[in-house]
Specification:
single chain, 361 residues, alpha/beta, Rossmann fold, six-stranded parallel β-sheet, five-stranded mixed β-sheet, 11 strands
Length: 361
């Protein structure tokens, strides 16, 4: 019986994790729940699962991680505010099922320095797929990682055709049902850029050996290419409950958590190169990842400000990545990476992004 603490319990990841736990009461028990601001939703979940330890907001969530005895902490918080809970989970020695990619990307060396081998289990479908595929060979046998991208709702459009995209169009993702920020990031491919940084930090593969390929069907969730020419792919219908279940009980699989592919029906899977002119976010993210220090934090913070401005009608869709690029270019990173330097860099990036957005309006 695994004792599970869920952070971001009322969000998409959290509610699907509770679906998995609800269906497998003999394998899991919920010992704590934390939500961002949905007090009534949190109360309803706590009542259903008999949970007495709850928290609202990232600060309370971090303290909950330190106070509650759990085997695994599922961090499903959105945004860099999840860094504190991520560090708390790792420092406590608990398994961290990580859906909050921003905390790893922003924290970088702060996170990897304290994580024991195998302590972080990725929950993003792409990184879960890579983790599964990596079991087919040794680290020395890996040639490259191939991260798949659906291409979002604007796949195939030119940069000029993206200029007049509306927020409602950006939120119409063809495959996944996610929150506003993540869905918009998928439309700009900022999300894929963040996932490339995450893949580097999780698996230690250099950036020049991590590629992105567009796969509109979202069936192959990522691939690992080995030195002998073999490529191992993880394929399944797009359902986050599968990677969530692996995160909760890695490396064990849970029967019936997701439906299999139907091999009796004809289907086509296509793979296309990424158009880096129309969608420059991945190339920029790789540059930021190589630079390290506080640059990934600045990239992420500037994006969050730009996404808000886009949805508020103050910034064009193409202005999101343009704003990020300008903020990153203006940033002068300190030599030392600490929680304080990260906080300072994020605050600076938000101010810088706001100023650039205001001047472009």
């Amino acid at each position: 019986m695994r004792r599970v603490l869920i952070l971001g319990s009322t969000g998409s990841i959290g509610t699907q994790a509770l679906d998995v736990i609800r269906a497998n009461p003999e394998r899991f028990t919920v010992v704590g729940l934390a939500a961002g601001s949905d007090r009534s939703g949190l109360a309803a979940q706590a009542a259903e699962f008999g949970v007495t330890h709850t928290a609202l907001g990232a600060v309370e969530a971090e303290q909950l991680v330190r106070d509650v005895d759990a085997d695994v902490v599922l961090n499903g918080i959105t945004g860099s505010v999840g860094l504190g809970p991520t560090l708390a989970a790792l420092e406590s020695g608990r398994t961290l099922a990580l859906a909050n990619k921003e905390s790893l990307i922003v924290g970088g060396g702060l996170v990897t320095a304290i994580a024991a081998p195998g302590q972080i289990v990725p929950v993003d479908s792409e990184h879960s797929a890579i983790a599964q595929a990596l079991r087919a060979g040794t680290d020395a046998e890996v040639r490259r990682l191939v991260v798949t991208a659906s291409g979002g709702p604007f796949r195939g459009r030119t940069r000029a055709e993206l200029a007049d995209v509306t927020p409602s169009q950006a939120l119409a993702h063809p495959t996944w049902d996610m929150g506003r920020v993540v869905t918009t990031n998928s439309a700009t491919l900022v999300n894929k850029g963040l996932e490339v940084i995450e893949a580097h930090l999780l698996f230690g593969i250099p950036y020049d050996r991590i590629d992105v390929v567009v796969h509109p069907q979202s069936i192959v969730h990522s691939m690992v290419e080995f030195v002998d020419g073999s490529t191992i792919a993880q394929a399944s219908p797009p359902d986050m409950r599968l990677p969530i279940s692996l995160g909760l009980d890695w490396p064990h699989r849970i029967a019936g958590v997701g439906g299999p592919l139907d091999w009796t029906v004809a289907a086509s899977w296509t793979f296309e190169p990424l158009d880096e002119h129309a969608f420059p976010a991945v190339r920029l993210a790789k540059q930021v990842g190589v630079a390290g220090r506080t640059y990934p934090a600045v990239f992420n913070a500037a994006n969050e400000q730009a996404v808000d401005a886009f949805h508020e009608g103050r910034l064009a869709f193409t202005g999101i990545v343009d704003t990020i690029a300008r903020v990153v270019d203006e940033h002068d990173a300190p030599d030392e990476l600490t929680r304080e330097s990260l906080a300072d860099a994020e605050a600076w990036a938000r101010r810088a992004a706001d100023a650039i957005i205001a001047s472009s309006s």
